[in-house]
Amino acid sequence: MSKQEFVRGPVVVESANVKYSEEHITSDYVYQRTCVRHVNGKVVIQPFEEKYQIQTTRKVPQTGVMLVGWGGNNGSTFTAGILANRLGLKWRTKEGEREPNFLGSVTQSSTVQIGCNEDGERVNIPFKDLLPMIDPSELVIGGWDISATPLGDAMTAAKVLDYDLQRQLYPEMQKLVPLPSIYYPDFIAQNQSDRATHVLLGTKQEQLDKIRSDIRTFKESNKLDSVIVMWTANTERFSEIQEGVNDSSPNLLAAISRNEEEISPSSLFAVASILEGCCYINGSPQNTYVPGVVELAEERGVPVAGDDFKSGQTKVKSVLVDFLISAGIKVRSIVSYNHLGNNDGRNLSDPVQFRSKEISKSNVVDDMVGSNGLLYKPGEHPDHVVVIKYVPAVGDSKRAMDEYVSEIFLGGTNTIAMHNTCEDSLLAAPLMVDLVVLAELLSRVKVRRAEPPAAAGGAQGAGKHEGGFEPMHPVLSTLGYLLKAPLVPPG
To answer: Model-level pTM?
Structure first.
């Protein structure tokens, strides 16, 4: 194995292409692309370049996170993890003493190779040291839930963390009580009704106004520069896209004022966040981002991201299917079976809510299949079956069993069977950390392009940057790696 060096500390690039000021890091970047054309039976590839300047604000804002579904397993585990790291707690298990960490987080626990040192050794640096980023242990956390259970009791009920860690966290966690949330019985499973004791009343317009007020109060009382709102509540059924209701931003806002039934809680939270200028992240599979919500985000220039945390079985699936198809192996069927015993599993036992999850889990392989016209004819697709069952005894320790059947050389068959025990919330919480850290970072990144751009087959652009810097597109497709069904800009 070649020698490698691990280093810590802020990165400084000594280059004419990177400039540092007290406020910004500004870099010149050349994006090398190709234009592909069909000419006289040949595939003609013409390289060309687009020149950009990328500007990152260096000051890291004081940031807060408001979780919808704060009292659920994900919300309580995320909060407990932030507090454990902030307080530097140590706790004992049957395997000895443990210390807090952010294992499972790309931003906090992965490294990036940045080059070689004078001795030719590869140099690696923590991802979080590449640019100024928020320290997750300093996040201020709040949120809403349809249950008034304090976070200490919610953590205990979740049965996710070791007892000694729970014991030390309980006094701090018990001080945290969710704000009342929105509950529409038609959108989540009927078996959730017993939890819905802490709900906002009134019309949808009144509920929207109250959520907006909650965000403002949270921001002002904690003296925050920035707030990110994240949906980590129950999976909803899909919303029907209705003309004149949720198909455009004016129609959506008017529909809320008319108290239209087909406006879901998650879409209402998204609208409230956007109107308050706060990034909104959807961590569940439902179609929160109806056309009206996306259009509103674009009009207001407010970042949004989704859908559905990609933490366990689906993360493995996306890697394995990509490997198989890239290796020229034709995946013929994928059968994914899950059983779990937390409240997410209970909610998903309803067929309507399960359908939302089934769609997000199934769509993860579509791009890989569509990329290989040698293996798959137009319209051809592997059989893909997803099953989720609720088994209370296993709690948060989800079991995932997958079978991948592929066609290989000369009609042969290859079968891969896999068993994966996924600690559901312990995988989701660090992913939530990454989404918050990266969403905040991207809100400080602005771009402008050299005009005119270098055209394919033509002369290069003059390289002069005309106009001011612009924020990245509000739909943060960059975060798609962390999500099962990545939201992308329209078109």
So the answer is: 0.90
